[in-house]
Each structure stands twice: as C-alpha cells, then as structure tokens.
Amino acid sequence: MHRCVGVDRVLDVGRIADVIAAQAPDIVALQEIDVGRARTGGVDQAHRLAQRLGMAFHFNAALRIEQEQYGDAVLTALPERLVKAGPLPGHPRLTRLEARGAIWVAVLINGVELQVINTHLGLVPREQWRQAETLVGKAWLGAVGANRPVMVVGDFNAGPRTRAYRTMSRPLTEARRIASGRRLAPTFPSTLPVWAIDHAFVSAQIVVDAVTTPQDALSRAASDHLPLVVDFRILAG
Questions:
Q1: d(CA 1, CA 16)
Q2: How far is CA 15 from CA 39, 69, 107, 206, 219, in A?
Q3: With contact defined as beta carbons under 8 Å apart, do 187 and 1 qualify?
Q4: What number of CA atoms fall less than 13 Å from residue 167's CA on the CB side?
Q5: By CB count within 10 A, which of 20, 91, 140, 199 is most buried?
Q6: Is the pTM of this model over 0.70?
C-alpha cells in the first residue's frame, strides 16, 4: 500500500480504506505500512485502517527506527489469533538492504482455521530466494502441520520465472494457476499493470474460484500496486 501514498504523491489513509472496502474482503493482507513514522504524520496506519474497516489486526514491524515502525499486517473481522511474526534473512553480502519479515495469523472460517502468512520479499533475486526458502522451511510452512489449509500471500517482487517463485511453488500452488479462467491478473505498476509480482500461494485444501485485480480509477491512484483479490473456498476435511 506504499505507506498510503498514491501515485499522485498524496498521502491518504482513507483512500486505501475505500479501495479495500469496495471488495468487501473477509481477510486483508497489507504490505508497506507506516506506524508512528514522521514521514507520514506519525499515524498508526494499521490501526487506522482496521478501525475504518471494522476489523481486528496484527502488525509485524520488519523495520524499527527508535519509535518508528514499518512492515506488514493482516486484518479480518473473523475470529483470529496471532501465531508468529518475525524477520526474514537478507542478502549475505548486501547488508544495507531494507529489512523484510512475515506475519502468520490463523483465521477461523466455518469452524476451520486457515493459516495465513503475509510477507514482503526483497528486490534482489538472491535475497528473495533466501527469504522464500525460509518461508517454506521448518520455521514457517514446516510448522503449519499436515492437512491444514494455508495461504502464503504478499508482495514477492518476483514473477513466475524467478527462483523465489519456483521455491514457493514446491509445496504450494499459486492461485492464478488454478483459478477459473486463469487470468494473468498483473498488479504492478498500478497505472499500467504488466507484472504479476503479488501472489497468493495456496495448499491443496483450498479451491480458488477467481483471481482478479480491480482496475477502477481509485485503485489505480491509491498505491503503486493494484490489489490482488482471491475468491476461495476451503474443502471439507
């Protein structure tokens, strides 16, 4: 959500909330959130958005500078619990790259807990690959347990031909590949979307009915990425 600064360089938390509300989502995964940062007026953007949407939220700060924070969040009005939040490894030699992290929230849907892991990977291919390997490893996906529905979602900064994407595709399937119609649904840049770099990777217990990207003027202006909207069902156990 580009810290609520749109492509017109206007800071507007309410506009982001309106874009989200227009989709009437059950679960929202956000990246690039400012909390208490001077550059965006000291607002806790995660809390402000949750209030406007009538949802609970969990936030993970990938970056902390004294009292200022920046990171990712999961919002929902459904019963939920925070499972885990923490950092992801960076590049072994490029130590000044932006810190990255992930947040794992369990959301109760019709008596079944869906495990939602939200992340924002780095920009450098080797960095992305190390972060993806961590996510599919024992500390994250490996800790979910067998036969439990899980989605790993977020801004991966990586397309289908990258090593990071292939790593995530080993245990999971990217939602576009199983959605009805199999639309490309590119998300970046929002003004003229040509790259599909935001993804939802799902386990076998999840049926994906559709994957779309809103193309209205508000969605194009509110952030540099379009929202990725996934309609899904959880198979009965």
A1: 7
A2: 18, 21, 26, 31, 9
A3: no
A4: 20
A5: 199
A6: yes
Residues contacting residue 152 through CB under 8 Å, at least 6 positions apart: 117, 118, 119, 135, 141, 168, 172, 200, 201
Convert the pLDDT of each residue in 157-214 to its tens digit.
Answer: 999 999 999 999 999 999 999 997 767 899 999 999 999 999 999 999 999 999 999 9
Following DSSP, what letter does each residue of the chain receive, concatenated? -GGGB-TTS-B-HHHHHHHHHHT--SEEEEEEEEES-GGGTT-BHHHHHHHHHT-EEEEEEEEEETTEEEEEEEEESS-EEEEEEEEE---SS-TTSPPEEEEEEEEEETTEEEEEEEEE--SSHHHHHHHHHHHHSTTTGGGT-TT--EEEEEE-S--TTSHHHHHHTTTSEEGGGTSTT------BSTTS--B--EEEEE-TTEEEEEEE---SHHHHHH-SS---EEEEEEPP-
In the chain the first and final C-alpha atoms are separated, in Å, by: 35
How many structural domains does the chain have? 1
For 79, residues 6+ apart whose C-beta sits below 8 A from its C-beta are: 107, 108
Condensed to tens digits (0 to 9), the pLDDT of residues 78-105 reads 999 999 999 999 998 898 899 999 999 9
CATH number, domain at 83?
A: 3.60.10.10
